[in-house]
Design brief:
Blueprint (H helix, E strand, L loop, with lengths): L14 H16 L5 H18 L4 E11 L2 E9 L5 E3 L3 H9 L3 E3 L17 E9 L2 E10 L7 H17 L7
Antiparallel strand pairs: 1-2, 1-6, 2-3, 4-5, 5-6
Helix pairs in contact: 1-2, 1-4
Bound molecules: methionine sulfoxide.
Length: 174
Amino acid sequence: MGFHAEYSNYTSQTKEEMLQQLLMSYEALSSDCTNWVANLSNCASLLWHGYHSLNVPVNWTGFYVTHKPDELILGPFQGKVACQTIQFGKGVCGNAISSGETQLVEDVHNYPGHIACDGETNSEIVVPMIKDGVKIGVLDLDCLAPNGFDKMDKEYLEKLVALILTSCEFPTLH
Ligand code: SME
C-alpha cells in the first residue's frame, strides 16, 4: 500500500468481499495505532467508501461513545452533521447500548423512538461496543434505502466491533 488513502479504493465485487476487505484494511491500519480517535476516524472512512463502492447509499457511518453515565456523545463519523448526545435507552443507538444487542432496522419509520438526525434516512444498523462489561459506545450506519442492511452486514459489523475493541485503548470516560 503506497498511500494511506489507497485503503479507500475497494477492489471487491460483492458485499461479502467488500466487508472482508474492510476488516483487513482496519486490521492493517490499527496494527501500529491504538488511539481510538485515529482508529475510529479511519474506520468511519473505510465504511463510507466500502458501501459507496457497491453503490449502497449509506448517508452516515460513524460512532457514538459514552462520555458520562448513561449518555452517548457524537464520535468520529462520515456524512452530514448529526445529533450530539443520545441518552442510553433512547433511539436506536441508545437501545443498542442499553440492551447490548445489535439493532437491525429495516424501516426507521416503524421503529418506536427512532431519533431522526436526517429525515432522509430509511434504514439503520447499530452495533454496541461493550468491552469487559463496560459500555464503550456504538457503531452506527444509516442508509437512504429501506432495507439497506441485512444479516451479512450484522455479522461483519459485529466482527469489526470485536476488532475495534481489541485494537483501541479507550479513556475511562464511563
Ligand atoms: N438514528 C439514531 C440517531 C443517530 S443518527 O442516525 C446519526 C438513533 O435513533 O439512535
